[in-house]
Amino acid sequence: MKSLDSILEKTETELSCTSFVGDPKSLFEPIEYILSLGGKRIRPALALIGCNIYSDNIESAVKPALGLEVFHNFTLLHDDLMDGADMRRNKPTVHKRWSPNTAILSGDAMLIASYKLIGETDPAYLSEVLALFTETALAICGGQQYDMEFEQRMDVAEEEYLHMIELKTAVLLACALKMGALIGGAPAHEADLLYKYGIDLGLAFQIQDDLLDVYGDAETFGKNIGGDILCNKKTFLLINALKLAEGEKRNEVMSWLQREEYTPSDKIAFFTTLYEELGVKELAEKKIKYYFEKAKARLADLNVPAERLDVLTEVSDKLMKRKV
């Protein structure tokens, strides 16, 4: 079995050797830029880990794994543009450094590049892998659309939110694990179990992301704290605050959500205090624990030696220990 460090090193090395240069330079520079900013590389790592659970040779999963990372970063270009985000990993977002049109077009080029990389999958698995990836890509678009629509609504239910983040975030983690497992020769039902594991892990991860947006450190989080609050994004925290706030407190919440002019720091401070007063932070922490424990329980049904799951457990633990 490969160690987590060796898998991450492999991912970074292979990604650095994957060139995105050509004419016009202005199309490819933003791609090189966003990929050079780093990140957890969790999606390609999960693909290689999924493969390694069933095979000692992970080389056949490398190109598809890189395709997932390129695709993920493509979504960031478009998400940042739609959210009006200024920073990504402590650096200016592509639409800020270049232009909105560049973010759109360079993102489109990344989508095409991701399909090219995934197309290098072993022919024995290519059809199934392409079908899985295409289904995942469409689901992510659906999740992003829900996310944008929710910004205009004040009646978003927690169940709707969970469905949205499953589509927008969790399915790509699940896809990575299942894709790697299929390439490694996993039985279909075990590849499906790993997919479900990825869904539960992704739900926990995204709710934790909601917490980090409020209570995290901007330096380690890589984004400005309070961005979701300023955008009125319907996070787990805001949805539950709207549910729990009553009387004058609810009126005050609605007033902040409807204001077009305000001091950003004041709005962030109000909602940070609100979440603590209503116990919403604790609700989020409990929900994160619920999905993480649910994910771990699924591994017991895999017919593989326990030690072959050590790296998956390690990366999952690290993912859920980001400081809030």
Helix content: over 70%
Structural class: mainly alpha
Question: Mind telling me the C-alpha Rg?
Answer: 20 Å
Strand content: under 5%
And the CATH topology? Farnesyl Diphosphate Synthase
Task: Please trace the helix and strand order, writing H or E for each element.
Answer: HHHHEEHHHHHHHHHHHH
Number of helical runs? 16
Shape: globular
Let me know the CATH homologous superfamily. Farnesyl Diphosphate Synthase
Low-confidence stretches: none
Structural domain tally: 1
Strand order of the largest sheet: 1-2
Write a structural description.
- There is one protein chain.
- With 324 residues, this protein is an all-alpha fold.
- The chain has a single domain, classed as Farnesyl Diphosphate Synthase (Orthogonal Bundle).
- The chain has 16 helices and 2 strands.
- The chain has a two-stranded antiparallel sheet.
- A hairpin with a 2-residue loop joins strand 1 and strand 2.
- Helix 1 crosses helix 3, helix 3 (42-54) packs antiparallel against helix 4 (59-83) and helix 12 crosses helix 15 (280-298).
- The radius of gyration is 20 Å and the shape is globular.
Write a short abstract of this structure.
By secondary structure, the protein is an all-alpha fold.
List keywords for this structure.
324 residues; mainly alpha; two-stranded antiparallel ribbon; 16 helices; 2 strands; 74% helix; globular
